[in-house]
Design a protein that fits this description.
alpha/beta; Aconitase, domain 3; four-stranded parallel β-sheet
């Protein structure tokens, strides 16, 4: 299928705007052909995930674009990099690793990207609006933008995200098109008390279960209580994008494109329907943990995706409610966030108590891309469904999923301690 190009597209393709732009447009056009898109559309912003790659090929790729005069055409934020750019020495990162990560980060800035360095760009600068066409990488960001904000993006793979940012153009395909945003699987949530859904961890378990069931389909969730904060939907989407390939979900009466079930399904009557039970959710909660109750704990990891101001507030409250107590010396308590969220939490008076408790706050990076998790970690605990999914393979450690309160208590006792499964109650 030939791809229709407008005058600007052809100028970019033919090299009139420079070699870097010509190369980027050639990638976009070839991608459009591969996905059978008849034309291209403009995007108003981009979020680049490729900056996290530590490979020599990534450095060579971005340096070539810079040296050929490449610049992004639309406002472009950057995903986390493989380094806390300011505190890497304190975190024990080897200099050789830091040097390469710093060169990669500098190169993406030279393309004109905004150095946000976060996997949760929806929490801060340039958060997209409803209906806006964007080109985002990073799985949890994509599902949040599509589902919660109602922006429109596909999950752009590494390097294609950069090419989209340089050209400002993407194939007119996938979730950019209204007809492809129709719900395809109806998932009914069991009736439980509102207290069952008070923790974002419970939403992460739901997301994990839905990801396994949905695969690449767009699920429509029926029966969810209205979330008290965006962090609950953030946890749901991040987990669903990890255990499955979910790029978008609808929650009836909650997300903007699902005021009711019929609207979410675009009037279709043939969607498969599944009923989740409490037993299924409780079973998922248990399956997401491989570390046993009472097992010696080596590390706690919070902030996957990056901590928001509200999460700093919640952590400070849990530490305060615990009373006297600090993280055991043999337990690493790692909180990952971005600079704007940390700055807000500092101004809110939240950080001093968190650090006095014994937490280490790392910015700009990820526990799976940067060597910041203690090498002796054989058992880690987290409140994140995404972290629980990836930690066993990425860190070679057993993992315990719990609430934020569980994580705080376990760090003090030095052993895995979890409250009852949220769905055991009324």
């Amino acid at each position: 299928m030939s791809v229709h190009l407008n005058d600007l597209d052809r100028s970019m393709r033919d090299g009139d705007l420079g070699e870097a732009t010509r190369f980027a447009m050639s990638v976009v056009v070839r991608t459009a052909g591969a996905v059978e898109a008849s034309d291209l559309i403009s995007v108003e912003q981009a979020h680049v995930d490729a900056c996290a790659l530590m490979s020599e090929s990534n450095l060579e790729f971005v340096r070539r674009l810079v040296e050929q005069g490449g610049r992004v055409r639309v406002p472009t934020t950057l995903n986390m990099v493989s380094l806390d750019l300011e505190h890497w020495e304190e975190l024990g990162v080897p200099r050789e690793f830091a040097d390469r990560a710093t060169r990669i980060a500098k190169s993406y800035r030279e393309l004109g990207c905004v150095p946000t360095w976060t996997c949760a760009p929806y929490q801060g600068y340039l958060s997209p609006r409803f209906g806006q066409q964007i080109a985002w990488g990073e799985s949890n960001a994509v599902v949040y933008a599509n589902s919660v904000l109602g922006a429109r993006t596909n999950r752009y793979p590494d390097f294609l995200d950069v090419c989209a940012a340089i050209t400002g153009r993407v194939p007119n395909a996938g979730l950019h098109r209204t007809e492809n945003r129709r719900g395809e699987l109806v998932v009914r949530v069991p009736e439980t008390s509102k207290a069952s859904w008070s923790s974002p961890s419970a939403w992460a378990v739901l997301g994990h279960a839905i990801g396994e069931l949905a695969g690449e389909r767009i699920p429509v969730i029926v029966g969810l209580p209205r979330p008290a904060m965006g962090e609950q939907l953030k946890a749901l989407g991040a987990a669903a994008a990890s255990s499955g390939s979910v790029e978008m979900f609808h929650a009836v009466g909650i997300t903007p494109e699902a005021p009711d079930l019929e609207t979410a399904l675009h009037g279709a009557k043939d969607a498969e329907e599944l009923d989740l039970t409490r037993e299924m959710l409780a079973g998922t909660w248990d399956r997401m943990s491989s570390a046993a109750e009472g097992e010696k704990l080596d590390a706690v990891i919070l902030g996957c995706p990056h901590f928001s101001y509200a999460e700093f507030e919640a952590l400070a409250a849990e530490i305060s409610a615990l009373g006297p107590g600090r993280v055991r010396p043999d337990v690493q308590f790692l909180v990952l966030s971005d600079s704007p969220s940390l700055a807000l939490a500092s101004r809110g008076g939240l950080i001093e108590g968190i650090r006095e408790f014994g937490a280490t706050i790392a910015l700009d990076t990820c526990p799976f891309h940067s060597p910041i998790v203690t090498e002796r970690a054989s058992a880690v605990m987290t409140n994140s469904g995404k972290c629980a999914y990836y930690a066993p393979a990425e860190l070679g450690a057993s993992v315990a999923l719990g609430t934020m309160r569980d994580c705080v208590r376990s760090a003090v006792t030095g052993v895995v301690t979890r409250e009852e499964t949220p769905w055991n109650g009324p």
